[in-house]
Specification:
heterodimer, A: mainly alpha, MetI-like fold, about 80% helix, B: six-stranded mixed beta sheet, D-methionine transport system ATP-binding protein (chain B)
């Protein structure tokens, strides 16, 4: 393998990391609050708004059931509007972010719904406002589950980011397709796959470690 | 023996007043409508430990949640220190809740916070500054005997220790009223006793009114001064704990009391029990005695005056609200002559009796 190719692989890895980080960050910042809303706006919950809850739930489901590759193509005009282009790393961040939002929202919702209702009742009995309950009780108690959710999001994003390569998105997937597949260089394909595996392993281990550190539920005496 | 009359606490002396309170849960989708509370009136004396006892589903959980507005009544009023809880808006409710502590069956501690952090939570919620929180939490941890565990997490503690943290947390905002929702139901008997001791101490030392709900007669007997028995959403009996225990009037109360150790007849006897006496049968009678009666040699006197054999079937000597109390189940000839002599003896000695049935 030529140094030129190795350099390309290095560059593509950085591109992938950049896309995953940007889409993960923006997607979580938007999807997280939506998830909190979904988990707290049912009938009789902290911010009761059952109608809105149902509508938001429907939109989230619709977004989640759209195949990613179709989403990428379908929102090209929107992507162009935001970034001025429909190809390359920067453009790929847009569909990746859009796909991340509902994904994160459902994971955050599930993480928060896991929390014992008794804790919410106890906080209410202390005179906590709904906002205080969200920040001091729900988010604090869900921290291990939220860490796992973000880890899962990052891992999925690494996979999705390889997919945007198919439409000229840049990054490892793009490299794998153009060199490994179209120019028939199986060694490049192999290296790309190995780098992806290593990335996923690193993210997963880091996430697991953090989640364990946050989890105080089953410490031994 | 006359039962001391139960006087309802005057409105000024009541920490909590339930005034004709009803709670109806409307039918929804899967479940039918359900009346949890039906026109309940009850006052909780300031400084008392008042117990509300009932089986599960009797409405006691709903009742206690009306006090701090976690549930809203569909009829009637709940007054806490003279304030109508139903008339408060959300902000008013939050203020009220900061002056009413609550402890729970499953403790409801935050697993992500240390012991210190859990006790500090209500103070953080109330917006207290860090140094002031520190000053408030330390003595509370001392009070419940867990100062050395301040940096531990709930998962590292036993059930009894968790409930002590729950109590410290409930006391953090210096409430005048403590609500206890089956606080000892998840604990073993020994731990239950130590938690109840702590509640008694807090009641005595801090002058805190305690309203507790439970399904365990043992709990009521050990700590409460007053008790109300709730069944199917209605208060069926109420009074000083001693009186209710020694002279239960309602069927539900009797049934719940029969579970207490010493109150239960041996199986062989209860199986053989008949409602009507036949010739040669023996009457099975429960004697309840307290006060002066408890100090006289009653049994030997009873045997002398009945002039026949007297069997002792079950018995217990106990203390209710600090007053000694004895219960004895005896059997003697059911013939008119013997029974008549026995009855005279009971009347002369001011004993409360209850004929449980007859055995061959």
């Amino acid at each position: 393998m030529s140094p030129d190719i190795l350099l390309k692989i290095w560059g593509a890895t950085l591109d992938t990391l950049y896309m995953v980080a940007a889409a993960g960050l923006i997607g979580s910042l938007i999807g997280g609050p939506i998830g909190i809303f979904l988990a707290t706006s049912g009938k009789g919950e902290l911010f009761p708004a059952p109608m809105t809850n149902r509508i938001v739930g429907l939109i989230v489901n619709a977004a989640r059931s759209t195949p990613f590759i179709i989403l990428v193509v379908a929102i090209i005009p929107f992507t162009r509007l935001l970034t001025g282009t429909s190809i390359g790393t920067k453009a790929a961040i847009v569909p990746l972010t859009i796909a991340t939002i509902p994904f994160v929202a459902r994971l955050v919702e599930a993480a928060i719904r896991e929390i014992d209702k008794g804790l919410i009742e106890a906080a209410r009995a202390m005179g906590a406002t709904p906002m205080q309950i969200v920040f001091k009780v729900l988010l604090a108690e869900a921290r291990p589950a939220l860490t796992m959710a973000l880890t899962m999001t990052a891992v999925s994003l690494i996979g999705y980011s390889a997919m945007v390569g198919a439409v000229g998105g840049g990054g490892l997937g793009d490299l794998g397709i153009r060199y490994g597949y179209q120019r028939f260089m199986p060694d490049v394909m192999l290296v790309v796959v190995i780098v992806l595996i290593v990335l996923v392993q690193l993210v997963q281990s880091a996430g697991d470690g953090l989640a364990r550190r946050f989890d105080r539920r089953s410490r031994k005496n | 023996m006359s039962v001391s009359a139960y006087t309802v606490p005057a409105p000024g002396d009541a920490a909590v007043i339930f005034d004709g309170v009803s709670k109806h849960f409307p039918a929804s989708g899967k479940s039918d409508g359900f009346t949890a509370l039906d026109n309940v009136s009850l006052s909780v004396g300031r400084g008392s430990i008042t117990g509300i006892i009932g089986r599960s589903g009797a409405g006691k959980s709903t009742l206690i949640r009306l006090v701090n507005g976690l549930e809203k009544p569909t009829g009637g009023k709940v007054l806490v220190d003279g304030v109508d809880v139903g008339g408060l808006d959300e902000a008013g409710l939050r203020e009220l809740r900061r002056s009413v502590g609550m402890i729970f069956q499953h403790f409801n501690l935050l697993s992500s916070r240390t012991v210190f952090g859990n006790v500090a939570l209500p103070l953080e919620i109330a917006g207290m500054a860090k140094p002031a929180i520190e000053k408030r939490v330390r003595p509370l941890l001392d009070l419940v005997g867990l100062a050395d565990k301040h940096a531990r997490y709930p998962a590292e503690l036993s059930g009894g220790q968790k409930q002590r943290i729950g109590i410290a947390r409930a006391l953090a905002t210096e409430p005048k009223l403590l609500l206890s929702d089956e606080a000892t139901s998840a604990l073993d008997p020994e731990t239950t006793q130590s938690i109840l001791e702590l509640l008694k101490r807090i009641n005595a030392d801090l002058g805190l009114t305690v309203l507790l709900i439970t399904h365990e007669m043992e709990v009521v007997k050990a700590v409460t001064s007053d008790v109300a028995v709730i069944d199917h959403g209605r208060i069926v009996e109420r009074g000083h704990t001693f009186d209710v225990f020694t002279h239960p009037k309602h069927e539900t109360t009797r049934a719940m009391l029969s579970g207490l150790p010493g109150s239960k007849l041996p199986d062989a006897v209860s199986r053989a029990l008949k409602p009507q006496a036949a010739a040669g049968d023996r009457a099975v009678v429960r004697l309840t005695f307290f006060g002066a009666a408890a100090e006289r040699p009653l049994i030997s006197q009873l045997i002398k005056s009945v002039g026949a054999e007297v069997n002792i079937i079950a018995g217990t000597i106990d203390e209710i609200g600090g007053r000694p109390y004895g219960s004895l189940v005896v059997a003697y000839g059911a013939d008119a002559e013997t029974a008549g002599r026995a009855e005279r003896f009971f009347t002369e000695n001011g004993l409360v009796t209850e004929v449980l049935g007859y055995v061959a």
